[in-house]
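Changelog note: in this version the structure field was regenerated for every chain. One regenerated record is shown below for reference.
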Amino acid sequence: MRLADLSGFAFDLDGCVWTGAVLLPGAADLLAALRRRGKRAVFLTNNSRELPESVARKLCDLGVEASPREVLTALDLVGGEIARRFGRTEVLVLGVEEMTRALKAHGHRLVPLERWRDARVVAVGNDPAFDYAKLKAASQAVARGAHFVTVNLDPTLPLEKGEFDPGAGALAEAVAVASGVRPLVIGKPRPLIFRTALERLGCRPREAAMIGDSLRSDIRGGRAAGMFTVWVVPPGAKRQGGIRPHLRVASLTELHALLEEGVSIRRRRQFPSTRG
């Protein structure tokens, strides 16, 4: 089998397609080549600050064709998953305005900090305004029995020039340590977001690739979903806990070259890297 034989391609965004507001080398050319070949693509992100419309807009502004339907954010799945598990309910939110909008869209009622005792669910996303008062309210609500949900457990959010913001996972871990309760995780590497991506791609797992820079979330989750996995290796990265991608590349430029060369991925998947 060749890369070109696959029907659908799921791309991680942060650290794979872009860092902050900078498009990474090879991303636009690879996506354009897949479009020319009639392949389907989705953009799969643990982002807890933005909804699909704004992510699609950013991709288009950077020169990558994308529609909101092709963008799947973990934030967009939170409200529906809470409703499925716990019904429409009272939620204490640690997150940005987009997160409150996503929860309201599914009929949830938001609880202010001072009424944390009324919360049946505590939902944690990336929150630049996170402080001790929020940590106290959220951890007390969870300790008293509120369900604990987080958009993701990513410790950082990559930015330009090697900088980063603390991720939603860093805040969720603070609540977990204080309350003694582990959260339900919505985003990668959990199955929900990968199942939804495959539905959007309209293909079976063995016909789709998951392409990302994180072994812990992209590659682990993609393999568990039965997808072909491509690790775009970050500078200085090391393997983690026996997580093995099917294919390893230095950049999306290299992946584009393999697509055009028609190299057999079945033959290459057994090797630790693709180039010397």
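Spot check on this record: The two ends are 22 Å apart (CA to CA). The chain is about 35% helix and 20% strand.
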